[in-house]
Amino acid sequence: MGKKLNLNDPQTFNEKLQWLKLYDRNPLYTRLVDKYEVRKYIAETIGEQYLIPLLGVWNSFDEIDFERLPNQFVLKCTHDSGGLVICKDKSKLDLKQARRKINHCIKKNYFYNTREWPYKNVKPRIIAEQFIKDDIDDDLKDYKLICFNGEVKCTFVCTNRHTGAGLHMTFYDNDWRVMPFERHYPKESVPIRRPAHFEKMKEIAEQLSSRMALVRIDFYEVKGKLYFGEVTFYPGSGFEEFTPDSYDYLLGSWINLSKVHQTT
């Protein structure tokens, strides 16, 4: 990012994420970043009603029996970020391309890209989940609540991820007011409607983030139903710039590292 990293006295959000990669080694984190194992944790902690229905789990692409899958589904690698195939019509699915993408992702250890240690020992598997879509809005919004020492302080919404406009990220405070900054990606020019389950999202996120210095809990809201998305400990891996830069310091000030039990 063109800046000298200060690990002795980190101040910014991005600096503190690098510090957390090195010193916050709670073994629970490996389970929570595993897209299959986290489902069990969510079911045990807040209830399986918040889970997107699971259609199958496999160790390799060639184990998948596509005849038994519905017409629409989503394939996800359990051990990385971005290893997914969205199928909206099985008759049009390019199996050769899907196999190439999944096989490429399943051979990679995500840890070595950004040193996000929780991913290092995740067992590479493939899951299929039900394809979810809101009939009112084709753009499935991804609500990402950032928790600082167990408290939700801000939320950002990902939109246009799979459109020609490209990914947009818009930050909101806890009263659903747009926050005046951007982080790497542009924000939407028109405010996004507050989700109906926003208060429930905050309640669940704070329950799941208890005793964690920094974690992001993701949700979807589809057809009036709330779904858990995923858990992320290092948003943007701590390599996404803020505009203006002062918000890198503001969000950094919300992370209290003194409560972290350091391990090396």
From TrEMBL:
Pfam family, one: ATPgrasp_TupA
InterPro entries attached to this UniProt entry: ATPgrasp_TupA
GO molecular function, one term: transferase activity
UniProt-listed SUPFAM superfamilies: Glutathione synthetase ATP-binding domain-like (SSF56059)
UniProtKB keywords: Transferase
Protein name: Glycosyl transferase
